Amino acid sequence: MVTSPDPIETRYARSGDVNIAYQVVGSGPIDLVFVMGWVSNIDQFWTEPSFARFLQRLASFSRLIVFDKRGTGLSDRVAVEQLPSLEDRMDDVRAVMDAVGSRRAALVGVSEGGPLCLLFAATYPGRTAAVVTFGGYARRLRAPDHPSGVAPEDRERFIERIPQEWGGSFGLAERAPSAIHDERFVRWWGGYLRSSASPAAAVTLTRMNDAIDVRQVLPAIRVPVLVLHRRGDRTVPVASGRVVADGIPGARFVELAG
Fold it and tell me: Looking at the whole model, is its pTM more than 0.85?
């Protein structure tokens, strides 16, 4: 197991009536909030060497802030019928920043964390230094005015599999195909999913993420934005990343191999 250079303390921020688990690592000159997509467990981040190394590199030049969104990981679990909107989850970022005394931060969002960070930047421009999205999107599902989205029928098939297949290698073939035959990584991934959300919560969160559409807020974003996207992304088409970059004045789009 790889750990951070210093002991990691998990603390809790109050967001409304919900407790949000967070950790702070590093002491660099800028605050950097890392927003994981889909589901997460911040303790499990550090038990996978490649993930821990990634976070350590971020913490080497920043004060890195990681957290579990409400309903996931170490944060308060909420009733499936009461899982939060994107606006609620966005405000969890504000609550965590307040708890650590961060007046302004750069935000890094993965997948669904991307539109969450973009909505935060549009809502709290004074508290946002910059945004980086990786594999993100403005709208997930395909529509007549959004041909780059994922086909709704494909997402329905994915959602139908969650109750029967949650844990194990579920979803890994799309997210990290090079690791699908790595038995150690598959075991970690399965434990990560199970400790991040229940199958029922995962279904509801996935449906909520599929309903996201922040295209209308993109022109209002006035902070520097870097949009990173893998050319062969099997989860979110690279064209969805281009839609984000094209909609934000001055945004930079970088297409990565792989």
Answer: yes
